[in-house]
Structure formats: structure tokens, C-alpha cells
């Protein structure tokens, strides 16, 4: 392998694939990045076997030569140092040449780097995926759907299926659900392909966080290919492969109440600021418990207390209130997580007494739905 | 105590003094901030007994009322929650009222906070300092002098005196020195007061880092008052008190060579970039060892190697080279620390062979001097 490539384009590709490099592994090859040079272009691949990312660098784009491949070939370079050094190379042109026993010489300006390369034959082969089930959705929407659900997955590895986000696609509605048994977040969006449908696909929350980082800011379409136990995301020149989580996701549809004894409509930011202040005090108690109470004048009161420090009490006006008076306690951190991702100025909150789930959704649309279990307290 | 005060001005004062709040203490009063309201204004104080910071809020500045004191008095409030909540209060006006047993009521907009207050009589009394020895220096210069020396203090508590920066003021030259026995950083500057002189004053590096954070960005003068075992920094409405470290600082003047066998003059940024790349590889070996070698063509070569990863070699041209050929190894992290703070485009480096200290200073002035001991290696 022998090639010349522009530093910035090489660095961009490295940054993309580096998210799949195994950081804690006893298998040295997995801590590397594979480079393949062919007459078509240069391909970088990294894989920790759960996720694999491949980035393709074409030889040229409109009027600009990015890479010149003098001799095709492959090598695997240990990622840790390679990722750091490329962005600091002194010249915009980088020459890479692989010699005997994968010894790799990288030169740029007056800098010369000799790296011990590894045999590319040992590198894991990417899964072959049949492209029967393909959904295209805007990158922005995918990022939003991830952001609005992934925070609710559990970090507790004793229920591995709940560390993932459930995907369903039925009758043109694409839906994400996440729950850690104390709360639930769901987000749905219409997609234009009616002949694709799937259910019980669960993708690790960690993987989705990594994916969200490499979805480009520009509004591009992401193709999502669903195969037997793998999902492939196609983002322009970047391919992102992820395993699905094994197991059956619990049925959460039955725990969502359809009617409420108390209903509130109120300003999202006002509630968020108010709960944030009460949270600050509740945090000192480690419990994060905040109370919400309807008041006689048709508003609500938010409060929290700490035996050592004192008490915070907040009066809040609401846009609408319907139904019974209410007094309820909940984990304010869970509520703040929801209020952070709800993309609507006004929100609806439904209650069925102090012991039943709290439902929060935007007041003007039904694409998001959040559930929080109350904290069961007697006073 | 009963007063009304503007949130932002209260918050600024809290941010200043909070740096002196004791974070790990078994004495509850030290984890608090003391508020004193008098007809002259409002004073906030925090102290961990090593450092104490006091910030004074006047009742008004040019045409603007900042605070109205309705009833004088004092209280101590636990810092942790107080620091967080004040910046998040909903209204720009904050009312504070202290009741029985120091119960404190803070109201702002529709937010009401009841805090358990502590008895201000238990709060440490600030040292009384005689203002005989006062030096005035520009805040920018003080911050530079700290930044250019403090990184070289030791973090090893077995030699407590070396965790501080040595100050000397002799014949109108104010000098800072720091060393951890492997390297030394010194910075001097002329000051205008010739009748003040002191020596062997050592201030903790941690304290100086905290001080640097509250020296304002605008070019204001800082008054430094040196007393028996305390130093007081006056920064406008903020007073910063620090204990001196006990003990005698070692005499470092004899280890600075006055002549060199090899001398280099070269571009600071070019050397810094080059060593940074070699450092990246040396870091993987945990040793940080980088080699510098003069070359036959009158330049230098910077290199490092890792048994597992490979080798980096850099060719560098220099502005001037005088004296004997040289081959030396050193800790690249120490060299990068120096190159980060040297405020000159070109620097001078003097050597006396592979086993003797390396001296680095700006090429165009002698206000800074850095020393690094070489790594003694045989190859």
C-alpha cells in the first residue's frame, strides 16, 4: 500500500470510525483502524464487534484531488496514537507507505513516523446485510428521536434488554420507546415507506449515542437497513453497523393511561425553571424528591425540603387545570430530563392520583409521550 | 438582618468568595458563606482558614441602587446550595431576612426559600494585617507571573515548601520561583516601589491558582500587602487573604549555569509543535522521553520511540546554533509546559552536555528563565 492523502479528509474519516474502536480489549487487532487503499478510494474501518464503522474517502471531489493511490493494499494501525497524531501533522499532504511485515511509514513535511502495523487479514469482517428493509429518514429527525428517548434507558446491566431503545415501524409510523421501569420515553414520526414494517428491534442506548454524534448537522437523509440481527445506518460516505440486543422487550402499551383525573396545561420553561430550583435542594438529600400540589387559587405549588438545609416553595400559574385537586411527589431529575427534551412551549400533564403514573406530552402534538412513576409517600 | 439586593451583584460576590469555602471539612461553619449587612453595604466572607476571601457590595454605584439594608445583621449560610440557587432565582431582586435562630427567608418573584442559618459568631475572624509592606502591580502582570511559574510546583506533599511559589522583592525587582526538583520556572518584573523588600515568602500554588481566577480581566492594579505570616491581595472590592507556607525555600541560584557549551535560538511554535508530536508517542511509553540531537546540516532532530508502536522523527531548522554537537533526552511534558507559557516568538536554549540542566528563556528578554533536568540515558 502506498498513497498520498489530504490530512483534513483523513482526519475526518478517522474521527468518524474511531468511535467504534474497542477501548478495553485483550484482542490487539480490535484496538486498531483498518486502512484499505484501492483504485476507487481509501476506506477506513473500526470495529469493537458490537458496532462497526466504515468511512470511505473518494480519490477526488468536485475539482479537488483528495487522495492518490500509488499501490493498493491494506494495513491495521493501532488507533490510540494514530488518531492523535494525524490531526497534528505539519503539512496538509500525508504520505503513507506500508512495507515488509506491515511496517508503515507516514511522512508529512519534515515529520517521519514509523508505525508497527498489524495484519489486516486478522481484522473482523463486516456483516453482509441484505437491503430488503430500508427506511429513509432525515438526519435531524433521527437525532431528535434518539435524544428524546435514549436518556430513559437503564444503565443497569441486570436487565440488558432495557439498556436499549425499542423500535417499531407499523403502517408508516416509526416509533422509539425507552424505559428503565421508573420512567418511559417515547417518540414517533411518520415515514414515507409503507411497505416496510418491523417490530421488537432493540438497539443499545450507548450505540445510539455514538450514532447521534456522527449524524451530520446538514439536513441529509439517513438510510436505515434492518436485517436479521444487525442494523446498518448509511450516512453518505459513512456506514455504521450495529448489532441488535437479544431478548423480548416488555409490552409497555398497557401502562399508558388513556384518561386522567387531573389535567394541567402549562408553560414548559416556567415549570422547568421552577423544578430546577426545587431539584437543587432535593439533590442535597440524595432523593431528588420534589412535590407538586394544586392550590386553591387554581395554580400549582412546587416544593422540596432538606432536613439540614431548609425548604424551597414555588408558586406557579398554569394555562389550564381540569379535574380533581392533587398532591404528588416524584423524582425531579426524571422530570427535568423530560422537560429538557420536550420541544414545545406548552405541555400537558395528566395524573390519576398520587400513586399512579404521571404522563407528560407536548400540548400541541402527540409525537412524544413521557411517563414517570410517582414517589409513593404518605405526607 | 433584612435587605433587598440585586441578584446579579449578589451572585458575582458569591462566585468570588466561594473559592475559599472549605469543601472537605468536619467544621460545618467553614462550609458556609458569611453575610454581613450594615448601613455601608453588604459583605460576604468565606474562609477555609488557609485562604479567606471577602467581597464587599456597596449599596449603590453610579445612579444604580444595588442593595437596600432595612436591618443590619449577620448570618452564615451553607455555601453548596446557596451558591447554586442564587444564580437561578427568577427575579432580579432578592429579599433576604434573618429571623429567630438564624432562620433565613430568601424570596425572589414567586420563589420562597427557607434556609437553616448558622451563628456568625462562630465564623473565623479574618487576620488583622498591618499595611507596611505594600506592592502594587497590574492584575495582568500578576496573572502572567503566576501562570508562568505555578505549573512547576510539586504536588508531592512530602516536601510542603516546594508546593508553593517563592517570592522575592529586592531593589525594585519582583521575582517568582517554583521548582519540583526536576525543573524550575522563574519570572521577574520591575515594580515601582523601591522601599519595600522581602524574601523567602512562599505562597501555595493552589492558592495562587485560585487567586489568578479572580484577578479581573480589565487592567486594574492589585495591591499586595505582606505581613508576618499572611499576604493580602486587594482587588477592588475583593480582599483575598492567604497564609504563607512555613519553612525555608532551597537556594536555587547556584544551579543556574551562566555559560553554555551548546546554544540554540529557534522558533517557539515550531519547536512546540514538533515536541508535541514526539510527546504523543512518548506518552504511550509512560516515560514521556523525547530526544534532541544536533544534526550535521546545522539543524536539530527531535525523536521519540515506543517499543510497541514505532518511532517519530522530526527535522527542525534553527535560527542560530553555537558550540558543540549535542544529543540529549528529557521529559517532553516538562518541555511542553515551558513552551506553553513562554511569551516570545523565538527562544534561547542553553546546554552543557547530556547530563547537565537545560536552560530555556525568551530570546529577546530575560524576565523568564526555565530549567529542566535531562533524562540520564546512555544511548
Automatic annotation (TrEMBL), chains A, B:
CDD domains, alphabetized: beta_clamp (cd00140)
Residue ranges annotated for the DNA polymerase III beta sliding clamp central domain, each copy included: 137-251
Biological source species: Cohnella lupini
UniProt similarity note: Belongs to the beta sliding clamp family.
Protein name: Beta sliding clamp
Single GO molecular function: DNA binding
Subcellular location, record wording: Cytoplasm
Quaternary structure annotation from Swiss-Prot or TrEMBL: Forms a ring-shaped head-to-tail homodimer around DNA.
Primary role: Confers DNA tethering and processivity to DNA polymerases and other proteins. Acts as a clamp, forming a ring around DNA (a reaction catalyzed by the clamp-loading complex) which diffuses in an ATP-independent manner freely and bidirectionally along dsDNA. Initially characterized for its ability to contact the catalytic subunit of DNA polymerase III (Pol III), a complex, multichain enzyme responsible for most of the replicative synthesis in bacteria; Pol III exhibits 3'-5' exonuclease proofreading activity.
Annotated ranges, domain DNA polymerase III beta sliding clamp N-terminal: 1-127
Cellular component GO terms, alphabetical: cytoplasm; DNA polymerase III complex
InterPro entries reported for this sequence: DNA_clamp_sf, DNA_polIII_beta, DNA_polIII_beta_C, DNA_polIII_beta_cen, DNA_polIII_beta_N
Alphabetically ordered keywords of this record: Cytoplasm, DNA replication, DNA-binding, DNA-directed DNA polymerase, Nucleotidyltransferase, Transferase
Record carries keyword DNA-binding: yes
GO biological process: DNA strand elongation involved in DNA replication
Amino acid at each position: 500500500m502506498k498513497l498520498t492523502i489530504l490530512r483534513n479528509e483523513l482526519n475526518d474519516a478517522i474521527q468518524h470510525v474511531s468511535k467504534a474502536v474497542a477501548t478495553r480489549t485483550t484482542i490487539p487487532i480490535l484496538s486498531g483502524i483498518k486502512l484499505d487503499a484501492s483504485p476507487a478510494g481509501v476506506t477506513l474501518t473500526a470495529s469493537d464487534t458490537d458496532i462497526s464503522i466504515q468511512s470511505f474517502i473518494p480519490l477526488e471531489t468536485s475539482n479537488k484531488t483528495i487522495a492518490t493511490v500509488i499501490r493498493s493494499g491494506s494495513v491495521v494501525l493501532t488507533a490510540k496514537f494514530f488518531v492523535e497524531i494525524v490531526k497534528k501533522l505539519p503539512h496538509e499532504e500525508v504520505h503513507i507507505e506500508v512495507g515488509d511485515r506491515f511496517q508503515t511509514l507516514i511522512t508529512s513535511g519534515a515529520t517521519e513516523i514509523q508505525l508497527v502495523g498489524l495484519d489486516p487479514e486478522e481484522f473482523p469482517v463486516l456483516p453482509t446485510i441484505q437491503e430488503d428493509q430500508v427506511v429513509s429518514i432525515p438526519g435531524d429527525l433521527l437525532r431528535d428521536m434518539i435524544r428524546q428517548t435514549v436518556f430513559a434507558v437503564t444503565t443497569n446491566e441486570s436487565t440488558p434488554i432495557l439498556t436499549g431503545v425499542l423500535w417499531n415501524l407499523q403502517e408508516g409510523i416509526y416509533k422509539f420507546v425507552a424505559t428503565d421501569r421508573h420512567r418511559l420515553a417515547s417518540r414517533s414520526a411518520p415515514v414515507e415507506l409503507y411497505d416496510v414494517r418491523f417490530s421488537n428491534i432493540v438497539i443499545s442506548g450507548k450505540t445510539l449515542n455514538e450514532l447521534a454524534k456522527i449524524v451530520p448537522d446538514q439536513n441529509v437523509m439517513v438510510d436505515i437497513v434492518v436485517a436479521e440481527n444487525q442494523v446498518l445506518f448509511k450516512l453518505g460516505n459513512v456506514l455504521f453497523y450495529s448489532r441488535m440486543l437479544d431478548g423480548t422487550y416488555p409490552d409497555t402499551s398497557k401502562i399508558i393511561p388513556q384518561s386522567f383525573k387531573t389535567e394541567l396545561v402549562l408553560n414548559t420553561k416556567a415549570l422547568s425553571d421552577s423544578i430546577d430550583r426545587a431539584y437543587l435542594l432535593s439533590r442535597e438529600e440524595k432523593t431528588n424528591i420534589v412535590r407538586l400540589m394544586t392550590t386553591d387559587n387554581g395554580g400549582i405549588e412546587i416544593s422540596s425540603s432538606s432536613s439540614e438545609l431548609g425548604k424551597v416553595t414555588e408558586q406557579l400559574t398554569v394555562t389550564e387545570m381540569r379535574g380533581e385537586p392533587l398532591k404528588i411527589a416524584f423524582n425531579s431529575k426524571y422530570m427535568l430530563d423530560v422537560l429538557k427534551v420536550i420541544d414545545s412551549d406548552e405541555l400537558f400533564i395528566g395524573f390519576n392520583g398520587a400513586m399512579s403514573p404521571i404522563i407528560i406530552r407536548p400540548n400541541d402534538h402527540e409525537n412524544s409521550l413521557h411517563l414517570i412513576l410517582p414517589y409513593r409517600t404518605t405526607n
